[in-house]
Automatic annotation (TrEMBL), chain A:
<keyword id="KW-0217">Developmental protein</keyword>
<keyword id="KW-0539">Nucleus</keyword>
<dbReference type="InterPro" id="IPR032675">
    <property type="entry name" value="LRR_dom_sf"/>
</dbReference>
<comment type="pathway">
    <text>Protein modification; protein ubiquitination.</text>
</comment>
<keyword id="KW-0833">Ubl conjugation pathway</keyword>
<dbReference type="Pfam" id="PF18511">
    <property type="entry name" value="F-box_5"/>
</dbReference>
<dbReference type="InterPro" id="IPR041567">
    <property type="entry name" value="COI1_F-box"/>
</dbReference>
<dbReference type="InterPro" id="IPR006553">
    <property type="entry name" value="Leu-rich_rpt_Cys-con_subtyp"/>
</dbReference>
<dbReference type="InterPro" id="IPR001810">
    <property type="entry name" value="F-box_dom"/>
</dbReference>
Automatic annotation (TrEMBL), chain B:
<comment type="similarity">
    <text>Belongs to the Aux/IAA family.</text>
</comment>
<dbReference type="GO" id="GO:0006355">
    <property type="term" value="P:regulation of DNA-templated transcription"/>
</dbReference>
<comment type="subunit">
    <text>Homodimers and heterodimers.</text>
</comment>
<keyword id="KW-0927">Auxin signaling pathway</keyword>
<keyword id="KW-0539">Nucleus</keyword>
<dbReference type="InterPro" id="IPR033389">
    <property type="entry name" value="AUX/IAA_dom"/>
</dbReference>
<keyword id="KW-0804">Transcription</keyword>
<dbReference type="GO" id="GO:0005634">
    <property type="term" value="C:nucleus"/>
</dbReference>
<dbReference type="Pfam" id="PF02309">
    <property type="entry name" value="AUX_IAA"/>
</dbReference>
């Protein structure tokens, strides 16, 4: 009897139908779970790879297009990231790489049914866009986040050829804006638009084409206009799209005229589903009340380009009781953040940007007090990006104690190496408290005066930390050693202007294979150490970025300008520009 | 002699014990910190200390680049103030010449372009690196929203000189180019629209004279040309000029309201307050409302 059941169960395990497994796997959507599933056994690996529809490539050089298409033949949606994060701040020289064309070319052959492409920090040419538009008959979603290399001509190809397009989102990309006519290439028969984000475009798009487009898109949910769209025209669009959920204005300024105001207010109040607002360049405060009626429904508000003062900001924000995300300039000041803390109890994410980061003295009254107030008053706060000019350990400790649920904490004290302004001590204790209390912290950016001690805290307590950004901090290699020998979950580490050298890197070389990437610039890592790493760790690409000419022309002990190390299964890059050198196994210097 | 100290600062400019951070702009000073030259000034050379608004074409004395104003720490004025802190002052001569472009720098040093007839005050001498050529259009990358200019009840923080900007480190603070460019364009748009904005009724500007124990505020809208402004300022600061002011001279031309109040109250002291830049301002210049 017993043996019967055991044979029965083994039989079942062996003949468990693939279709059933596939069906089960279809409920597993997270990439890491999918990856785990594929490691269970060979048959699961096979089944999983045939039914994976969505792939995320965190570093375009970690894997090759060929490897991707060979393993996953049925992909419908791809997301690829290119340049390292510090490229956002001009630390990666022009021409470094991250070109998407090879990927598009490979996928054009392998994935005729591809529907979605999402790219971040990649170089996208007009040719790539044209290839996309002609290769995938069912193409629906194009998101280009912080990309560059294309012009409005490329957009015209997308508009003309992608009959099934639903999403065109150009967030913060740099577009060579030749003309606004590209929008008119969308055929009149095309009515499937769901989301359009052209906020980054400089020149005016044809407004009548835009109006007609909006009018024939009943599924339009997100519309983010560019600055060139004037305020008087907004109500035309809003009236044609009362179903909008997210809306970004253009320049929000005009001579105050009662008819314009009442049209606008009426149009806004007609959008009953509106949850998110953005845009607001050049705000004329008198027009702000036009959105008051939408405030109670808003969950997301991006005022980070709005140069309006604290009183106007307070009036606005105090009505947004359901606000979950606020991006704002430091004009809000401490007093505005007090009001935010009092009114917005559902706030999850706060970003405060500096209105004038290049002046020594504060131009607004925004200090650490504002952030402390929000940490006290907003129980759901989990993500913070805060630029300010003074900070204290006491404030950081308070924030940590108030908000142990923080997941992302990025603090930028504008003056490098600024100490606790009250005690003049380093801010080690403050940041230490953050990593200690916020046990779910996944992302941390440091600033201010910091010794090696803060890295000891981070290394030992930052167990879930995945991304760490360090600038102008630390005293010696010990600091870097603490991080590399701790931080079990670390995936991305980016460092600039710190006195970290060879010792910590070489002592923790193996750690680098467990991470996606390491960036170090203006540190003290010698070329010799880079060569050693490149030789010893074949599954890492060790790339030296140095615009002074070949590192071979200088002594090996000479520190490199910039260093980018990442794990890869694709071997060394083949598209390196002249200022990038890679070390391969036989320590040959490859350019 | 019972001349109130604050009216007779000449000769009291012993070396200032205030600190001066190196990247603050040192106001061009009309009196040097030590020496016989100073004494000479006291006695003989009124020109050195006299407030001059040089309209285009007028001659102006060489300003000594040097340490400036001393605030002798008298009780009436409270603790020594650090003139360097935040308040960039240097009510220097109006810029020569052909250009009518004057720009008020506001609020920790932004430039607010007032359209036609704007004024540039730039200190001569030690200038934290931001010496602007007066004849050019000034293009500091950032300017506050026009609202700053028009505050009535809280005095607009407009200073007569340029701010200290840091030498910029690449990629720091970490702000994306998209945002940097957007803010830069904000600035130029704002400076165009300042005049166009629905007005408050006045435009207060802080004025300082080197060596004066406190600053004044003038409402630019009260004047319709530079000549008027110039003479008003002369009158305003005349009491600081040696020999012209005693507490009991009602016959003086151009008594300001506050001077009158002093006289009425027969007080040897004037009321001052410290504003948010750390400057001492004479009470009464900005209307109560």
């Amino acid at each position: 009897y017993l043996s019967n059941t055991s044979t029965l169960s083994t039989k079942m395990a062996k003949s468990f139908p693939e279709e059933v497994l596939e069906h089960v796997f279809s409920f597993i959507t997270s990439d890491s779970d999918r990856n785990a599933v594929s490691l269970v056994c060979k048959s699961w690996y096979e089944i999983e790879r045939w039914c994976r529809k969505r792939v995320f490539v965190g570093n375009c050089y970690a894997v090759s297009p060929r490897i991707l298409t060979r393993r996953f033949p049925e992909v419908r949606s791809v997301e690829i990231k290119g340049k390292p994060h510090f490229a956002d701040f001009n630390l990666v020289p022009e021409g470094w790489g991250g070109c998407v064309y090879p990927w598009i070319s490979a996928m054009a052959g392998a994935y005729p049914w591809l529907e979605e492409i999402r790219l971040k920090r990649m170089v996208v040419s007009d040719e790539a866009l044209e290839l996309i538009s002609t290769s995938f008959c069912n193409f629906k979603v194009l998101v280009l986040s912080s990309c560059e290399g294309f012009s409005t001509d490329g957009l015209a190809s997308i508009a003309a050829n992608c009959r099934e397009l639903r999403v065109l989102d150009l967030r913060e990309s740099e577009v060579d804006d030749l003309s606004g006519h590209w929008l008119s290439h969308f055929p009149d028969t095309w009515t499937s638009l769901v989301s359009l984000n052209i906020a980054c475009l400089g020149s005016e798009v044809s407004f009548s084409a835009l109006e007609r487009l909006v009018a024939r898109s009943p599924n339009l949910r997100t519309l983010r206009l560019n600055r060139a769209v004037s305020l008087e025209k907004l109500h035309n669009l809003l009236c044609r799209a009362p179903q909008l959920v997210e809306f970004g204005t253009g320049a929000y300024s005009s001579e105050l005229r009662p008819d314009v105001f009442s049209n606008l207010a009426g149009a806004f109040s007609g959008c009953k589903q509106l949850k998110g607002l953005s845009g607001f360049w050049d705000v004329v405060p008198a027009y702000l009340p036009a959105i008051y009626l939408t405030c109670s429904g808003l969950t997301s508000l991006n005022l980070s380009y709005a140069t309006i003062q604290s009183p106007d900001l307070v009036k606005l924000v105090s009505q947004c009781h359901n606000l979950q995300r606020l991006w704002v300039l430091d004009y809000i000041e401490d007093i505005g953040l007090d009001a935010l803390a009092a009114s917005c109890k559902h706030l999850q994410e706060l970003r405060v940007f500096p209105s004038d980061p290049y002046v020594v003295d504060p131009n607004v009254s925004l200090t650490e007090r504002g952030l402390v107030a929000v940490s006290e008053g907003c129980p759901k706060l989990q993500s913070v990006l805060y630029f300010c000019r003074q900070m204290s350990n006491a404030a950081l400790v308070a924030i940590a104690r108030n908000r142990p649920n923080l997941v992302c904490f990025r603090l930028c004290i504008i003056e490098p190496r600024a100490p606790d302004y009250l005690t003049l001590e380093p801010l080690d204790a403050g940041f230490g408290a953050i990593v200690e209390h916020c046990k779910e912290l996944r992302r941390l950016s440091l600033s201010g005066l910091l010794t090696d001690r803060v890295f000891e805290y981070i290394g030992t307590r930052g167990r879930k930390l995945e991304m760490l950004s360090i600038a102008f901090a630390g005293e010696s290699d010990l600091g870097l050693h603490h991080v590399l020998s701790g931080c079990e979950s670390l995936r991305k580490l980016e460092i600039r202007d710190c006195p970290f050298g060879d010792k910590a890197l070489l002592a923790n070389a193996a750690k680098l294979e467990t991470m996606r990437s390491l960036w170090m610039s203006s540190c003290s890592v010698s070329f010799g150490a880079c060569k050693l790493l490149g030789q010893k760790l074949p599954r890492l690409n060790v790339e030296v970025i140095d615009e002074r000419g070949s590192p071979d022309s200088r002594p090996e002990s000479c520190p490199v300008e910039k260093l980018y190390i990442y794990r890869t299964v694709a071997g060394p890059r083949v598209d390196m520009p002249p200022f990038v050198w890679t070390i391969d196994e036989d320590a040959a210097l490859r350019v | 002699m019972s001349v109130p100290l604050e009216h007779d600062y000449i000769g009291l400019s012993e070396a200032s014990s205030m600190e001066r951070s190196s990247d603050k702009i040192s106001s061009s000073s009309s009196s040097s910190t030590l020496s016989t030259e100073e004494e000479k000034n006291n006695v003989l050379n009124l020109k050195e200390t006299e407030l001059r608004l040089g309209l285009p074409g007028s001659e102006s004395p060489e300003r000594k680049a040097g340490f400036g104003v001393s605030l002798y720490g008298t009780d009436s004025l409270g603790p020594l103030k650090n003139f360097g802190s935040g308040a960039k002052r240097g009510f220097s001569d109006a810029i020569n010449g052909s250009s009518d472009k004057w720009v008020f720098s506001a609020n920790g040093g932004y430039e607010v372009d007032l359209g036609k007839g704007t004024v540039l005050f730039s200190p001569r001498g030690g200038n934290g690196g931001l010496e602007k050529n007066n004849t050019q259009q000034c293009n500091l990358p950032r300017v506050p929203p026009s609202k700053h200019v028009e505050k009535q009840t809280s005095p607009a923080n407009e200073h007569a000189s340029a701010p200290a900007a840091k030498a910029q480190v690449v990629g720091w603070p970490p702000i994306r180019s998209f945002r940097k460019n957007a803010m830069a364009t904000n600035v130029s748009k704002n400076s165009d629209t300042v005049e166009g904005n629905p007005g408050s009724g006045c435009l207060y500007v802080k004025v300082s004279m080197d060596g004066a124990p406190y600053l004044r505020k003038v409402d630019l809208k009260n004047y319709c040309n530079y000549a008027e402004l110039s003479s008003a300022l002369e009158k305003m600061f005349s009491c600081f000029t040696l020999g012209q002011c005693t507490s009991g001279l009602p016959g003086q031309e151009g008594l300001t309201e506050s001077r009158l109040m002093d006289l009425l109250h027969g007080s040897e002291y004037v009321q001052t307050y410290e504003d948010k830049d750390g400057d001492w301002m004479l009470v009464g210049d900005v209307p109560w409302e």
